[in-house]
Amino acid sequence: MLHFSKFKAFMVAIAVVFAALAAMPNLLSEQTRQAIPGFLPNQALTLGLDLQGGSHVLLEVDAASLKEGLSKQLVGDIRLKLRDGKIRYQGLRRTADGAVVTISDAADVEQAMTLLRELSQPVDVGMFGQGGQVQEFDIVQSGQTVTMSASQGGLESRIGRAVQQSLEIIGRRINALGTTEPTIQRQGVDRIVVQVPGLQDPSRLKALLGQTAKLAFRLLCDAQPQGPGGTVPLDCEELADRSEPDILYWVQTSRSATVDGEDLNDAQTGFDQQTNEPVVNFRFNSTGAQRFCRLTQANVGRPFAIVLDAEVISAPVIREQICGGTGQISGNFTVEEANDLSIVLRSGALPAKLTIVEERTVGPSLGSDSVNAGMIASMIGFAGVLLFMFVSYGLFGLFSIVALMVNLLIVLGALSFLGATLTLPGIAGIVLTMGMAVDSNVLVFERIREEVANGRSPLNAIETGFRMALGTILDANITTLIAAVILFGMGSGPVRGFAVTLGTGILSTVFTAYTVTRLIIAFWVRVRRPKTVPL
Amino acid sequence: MKPLRFVPDNTDIGFMKVAKPGFMASIAAVLASVVLFFTISLNYGIDFTGGTEVLVRPTPENAQTLTIDEMRSVVGGLGLGSTELQEFGGDGDVAIRIGLQDGGEEAQQEAVAKVKQAFGDRVEYRAVNSLGSKVSGELARDGLLAIVLSFIAIMIYIWLRFEWQFAIGTVATLIHDVALTIGLLCLVRVQFDLTSIAAILTIVGYSLNDTVVVFDRFRENLRKYKKMPFDKMVDLSLNQTLPRTLMTSISTLLALLALYTFGGEVLRSFTFIMIFGVIIGTYSSIFIGAPLLSMMGAYVDRTPKPGPGDIPAEADGTQP
């Protein structure tokens, strides 16, 4: 056991040097790190949000709003399809997750079914598409009534697409805030994690993420409410004013009375020339410009509403036709509100509403306090353990201290190399590993003592001690590793950081206790040829 | 310099003689913990209940006037249902906890906004955590799942590496440790959150480590002393591993005490649980795992089987 081939000793040395190189960037400044040649590791540990401060926001695609959009669209599609097919129908309306329609003439039902089936696309289901394909809609016919509802697979694939689109749009919105290195990631089926380091007050971030930003220009109905509780006329919808929710408007719902914000090309903050109040200037693309031109031309003198996410921003009267493709939205904005509105309009509308289901923000002062406390605690803890080992095991204690240093170096190196994130529980994990790393050495040393007491020669006792302790060390550490792996699997954020450092610590502990300590002792035995074991 | 011995050599403590009362006491303690858990229950943090937690520190110019009582009345006037204010650490930080709001996920966000509006610039917002019932429900489920999964995984591992009696002994030890930890947490009302689950799983890892080391020695001695009565053999093994058990516990406790004292308020509940866990884990491998194994001793197969640390006798040349 004490014989090391030159090759083995060399490999251990290489591993230690590599770990040192990988740990090194943590001591260097950002600038020096940039100057490290490419073949050397140059990654430093990333501090978690709990240490550097920042905001973590978890968003979820609102399935209800997605279904609503889906059924709205479906009604429009059915209307078009049946009209093109010259099929008469009645009672076309939305359901919770689709639409229902009654074909007027029983003879047309067969043809109508064929047409309606064309509306349903096959979609891939299951992860990586190995789940095969299903139809987007379930179509059920009973008599002359046809019900179309989104299938489970259809809904899931729609949620998936919504998440994918939202990722891009969110990215654009956040980048407009000018913050440093935000992370935007999909989590699970219908969630998106947004992490912005260094962001102290996430209220603006939340405001930007919280609105769908569906903009529409819609004509007002002829009748307007005289107060709350009025009966909303046919083909009209009741919407509230954005800044004064008590003011209600009845707005036309038909597509012909609407121009959508999807056809916007650009939006910028500006100032009204007369009142000098902040406004948002926008420009349509050619489709939008044409439609807006036609709508205004036909309705000069009538009021229309500028609607954002089912709220009326303002309801001006059309004074003249607007065909230049540009326009202005004013609505008693502050500069920041106007800025945010132009950002969300520029970035595009989200395909569905996103709900904030979790927020975790750590201010920079708490973060740096935690870093300091963590540093002090680890240094004191480390010193305590080292002193204890030296006092208890003398020379061999010193050996184990060297091994512990190497262990720490390997943990830091591995974490940096893997690009792991260091969290406060992560620091606790490292300190704890140091405490437990000693265990492997203790196991070996105590075993050696026993073997000496059993009357073995020093050399023999050391050999046997290492060999007998190996199985125990492995068993003891593998079981802890199991706990760490499971923690990693279920945990999120800080807890995961703890699992990573604990797991890395265990692996490197087994390595150092078994190779580094043994190598040092083997070398000592060869040089000193001891007559007794100093334990 | 001669190394100091913290644990005397060649102890001959009759653990099995005191094991029975210890074992009985432990069973009583476990039962008490179960009762505590179902009566006064844990002090669950917002990770598992949902709700909002805002950590604030009054700015220096407001530190005199904005006392915790003043804050309490401000928060109380917001109409947010059950709220709780508590000093957090020694630097004037106050943790404001607000129970789960009715009205879905967005209502939690509104609670945060209300608190911020009420205090404005008078305080520094050190941390804000807010989550609805959806996420908290998932976290609770995942936490429980993690503990159960780790038990099963560990049991399988021990069963593969040892005899089944050892697996039962190990898991009984683990259940004992986790039950007592939870019982203590019910009593002292330390907040139980995600990091507490991490702490409990680490205790599981540690206690296991300890138990496995002791069991390893049982297994070795079982083969070595085939004629020795089981009780005696267990006592011998416990005495042989005692120095190691205590040395490791002391060094781990040293590291943990440093974390507890200097690691800041955020880590305190985590390290508190860990410290208790290390002590209880050390106790349980001696007073739970060993007696249990001793009870099942009659069924342990004592015919030699090659183990991982075993080397054929001839190669070793030192067979006793």
How would you summarize what this structure contains?
Chain A has 13 helices and 21 strands. Chain A has helices spanning 6-23, 30-35, 49-52, 63-84, 109-117, 152-177, 203-210, 286-298, 335-347, 364-417, 424-453, 458-490, 493-528; strands at 46-47, 54-61, 89-95, 98-103, 122-124, 133-135, 137-142, 145-150, 183-187, 191-197, 215-219, 236-241, 248-252, 258-260, 264-271, 278-284, 304-308, 311-314, 326-329, 354-362, 421-422. The model of chain A has no long low-confidence stretch (mean pLDDT 85).
Describe the structure.
The complex is a heterodimer of chains A (535) and B (320). With 535 residues, chain A is an alpha+beta fold. Helix content of chain A is 51%, strand content 21%. Chain A is built from 13 helices and 21 strands. Chain A has a six-stranded mixed β-sheet with strand order 13-12-18-17-11-14, with helices on one face. In chain A, a hairpin with a 6-residue loop joins strand 15 and strand 16. Chain A is elongated. The two termini of chain A are 19 Å apart. The mean pLDDT of chain A is 85. In chain B, 65% of the residues lie in helices and 10% in strands. Chain B has ten helices and six strands; from the N terminus they run αβαβαββαβααβαααα. With 320 residues, chain B is of the alpha+beta class. Chain B has a four-stranded antiparallel β-sheet with strand order 3-4-2-5. A two-stranded parallel ribbon of chain B has the order 1-6. Chain B is elongated, with a radius of gyration of 25 Å. In chain B, a hairpin with a 6-residue loop joins strand 3 and strand 4 (94-98).
